[in-house]
């Protein structure tokens, strides 16, 4: 990989995003709207305080998965990727460039969603808000990395979205958001232990309830970061020049 080419790729993607107002709205506005809707639904109850922090990790993960998988596939089906890979641009440069570009958007998304949840929706958290932002950014990057990975197996944008029930929904159901992971049947609990979103939800809940959570969530952060690196590495191996 060439750092100069990687950064140039990230800059190109950011320039494209700047003119794509719908995608920007999808990444920045939708998580805030969903969080606000849940806060409104559970107004006057302790439910939002119990699940709100976890959702700050789940929503960016889902949104970035959809946006990234569709955007990457669009570059391949339009022939842009094939033309780019005839230049010195390597697959690793392309994957990392996408990760950097959407990572920058993830920072803005996490700041917006966390600020909205804490200061507008009055989400009660015991830990530092900056750590909540860090985990939210990692969750968004995880969605980005998995979106890049699955885009290599899809032939159309519709097929890319179809991967959501296969990769996203099982993690949503088993991450501990709906049922505590320790209460799951043994087989499902074992599956939950290898799903990265489970550790994101664990970290978010710890931050919400522990005034000094850094020591406890460090391992969760490490696992999420490792999953991001693994997904990007696998994505660079499976990335095709064009869709047959």
UniProtKB/TrEMBL annotation:
InterPro entries: ABC-2_transporter_component, ABC2_TM, ABC2_TM_bact-type, ABC_2_transport
UniProt subcellular location: Cell membrane
Record-level GO BP terms: response to antibiotic
TM region(s), chain numbering: 24-42, 54-73, 94-119, 125-149, 161-180, 221-239
Ranges for domain ABC transmembrane type-2: 14-242
Single GO molecular function: ABC-type transporter activity
Gene Ontology CC annotations of this record: ATP-binding cassette (ABC) transporter complex
Domain of life from the UniProt record: Bacteria
UniProt topology in membrane: Multi-pass membrane protein
Any matching Pfam family: ABC2_membrane
Keywords: Antibiotic resistance, Cell membrane, Membrane, Transmembrane, Transmembrane helix, Transport
Sequence similarity: Belongs to the ABC-2 integral membrane protein family.
Name of the featured protein: Transport permease protein
